[in-house]
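Lecture 7 notes: from sequence to structure.
We start with the chain below.
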Amino acid sequence: ADTYYYGAVWSPDSKKLLWSDRAQRLRYVDVDTKTVTTVAENPDSRFFQYDWSPDSQWITWTHNERGTLSKIMLHRVTDGDTLAVTDGWYAANSPAFSDDGKWLLFASARDYRPYYSATEWNHAYVDMERVYMVALAKDTPSPFAPKSDEVALPKEDAKPNENGSPEKPDGKLAQDSDAGKNSDAPGKTKTENQKSKITVKVDTDGLAERIVALPITASNYSGLRMIGDKVYYRRLPAGQVGGGGGGEGFGAAAASRSVVAFYDLKQQKETELGNFDGYEITANGKRMLVRSGRNYHLIDTPSARTELKPESRLDFSGLELVLDRRAEWTQIFDESWRQMRDFFYAPNLHGVDWPAQKAKYSALLPHVASRNDLTYLIGEMISELNAGHAYVGGGDRPMAPRVKTGLLGAEVSRDPASRAYRIDRILRDPNWLDKVASPLAAMGVNVNEGDYILAVNGRPVRELANLYTALIGTVGQQVVLRVNATPADEGARDVTIVPIADESSLYYEAWVRKNIAYVAEKTGGKVGYLHIPDMGPGGLNEFVRRFYPQLNKQALVIDVRGNGGGNVSPQIIERLRRELAMVNMSRNGTPTTNPSHMLLGPKVTLLNEYSASDGDIFPFRFREHGLGRLVGKRSWGGVVGIQNTLPFTDGGDLRKPEFAPYAKDGKNWVMEGHGVDPDIVVDNDPAREFRGEDQQLDKAIEVILEELKTKGQTLPPPPPWPVKA
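Predicted structure tokens for the same chain:
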């Protein structure tokens, strides 16, 4: 194929196959004639959601369009007519026909309920969707139409004849009146025969006016399916991004669980089937495949809350695969090459002769002996494109079990004479930061710097080659340390601690606190400091945690050295860009900025060669918007963006550089392969840095103090109170 194909969907009559591709086309092929028909093309986006009507005569899909919101579309196969079911005022997705062809279902974000931020006067919208139904024909009655409260008269009952069989007033047997309804379809059930005779009727006039909403909780919906009077769906409420709970987002938070449910139009009530992660209903509507975690269950399509039973779980333990690994590795190699060909942001592939590269590296395929070899080979091939964010990994590769060594959250050294271990430094943090707290700093342990560790779980450390040999495999377990103020057993005591697996967050916290204190000391408390480690949820947490408590400072040093990237730099830059419009004053108060939460004074950003991806983009934005000067070293220079991996047979992962920024004047591509140059170049001397000096930070302090002399801002005092007598 000349481009990548996405998921194919058979028409219900099995005569046509519908798919989309990376060329951003939606197409189907007639199986008999082999004719390929293009349903739609979209220069703005690919097609990911599409489906057939039950009579195979209509196609529906989600259409994403730049500058407006997504729409639901309909296309008639017979004449190629296409119409929009929804407009661009409300985002819509997940279209699906009802099994009887009378309704088109979709999810749409039309519930506006703002959340106000707890950190500043700002808003966010979440859980905006409900499930909507549009009646395709004008004569389809609304399921929510008022019901008559009149009592219907009973019909004349069938009376038994002389043989005891029920007889209707016209003399026919009751069972005979139903028999023969399917006489034109021998071997078919009534339901199957009715389904085969479905004809979907679409009255385009007033289509948008026949949209009704299910009265269910606003959330996020997918997997819509309507069988009879029941509308099935999966609901996933919005949850916290990243961590949450346990103190500043470092602790574990209850993840948002999805719910599979249905709404009964006849009973007009919702029934939650359970907290399942996904589901699929068979074509005849009789069976449901449910995913819960890593388990799959096959059950009858439920009409009430369902408890998954062990006997319904699909047992895959007996599955065996006869695998030709070399054939699989060749396929994965070829697939990786094709994906880069079809998805790389620049269609010229940076001028690289891509077929030649395939020939060059495929020559080494016969020598590949493991998935790790294959990953290395693919990595070498895609590196020829000279682009950042080209990653390969994962797959069916052997993983040796790792035994974690327990760590104490402290620095220790060995006393040569006694061979005891002296506690030189405890990485202290507030204990409510439970995920990063040092075990030796826990309440009740009462161990101090300068104390000695004499034994671990009863084993004298003087007999150990290394203290940590006694801490292998102890992460999360209780360990008894014998400690003393001197390297002697007399007067020693036992303390119980729980070792941790990683001390990096403790060192990071200590480093940031040290820099905050250092900047405050060197500037007389005038200048604040914050570090943003990445441009994801963790980095956003650090910004919020450090920015708002320092709004009383006159200037700010923003440090993005070592920033690992992400995508939140626009949010942070917007907060830093706020401009003063007026000053607020209340009785017995002090002047405050309007808009609120502003830091008026000058700002400086620190960057280095490890400021990567969105860590590149942040200083670029900072300079572009005139927020201040850049100090340090040129950034990493990798800004071509990636999306999720496409599937590989062994579960491997390939990230393809798919979109890139260019200058707003259209003259050149920016940052990629070069990075962002600082205004003032400062390269930390390794020896001096090892001794604790930070020349880059010192230069930032020097620059900010100089700018405070001319660019410092203070709020003016209020004018005289108005007199309106």
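Points to note: Confidence is low (pLDDT under 50) at residues 162-191, 243-254. DSSP finds eleven helices and 38 strands in the chain.
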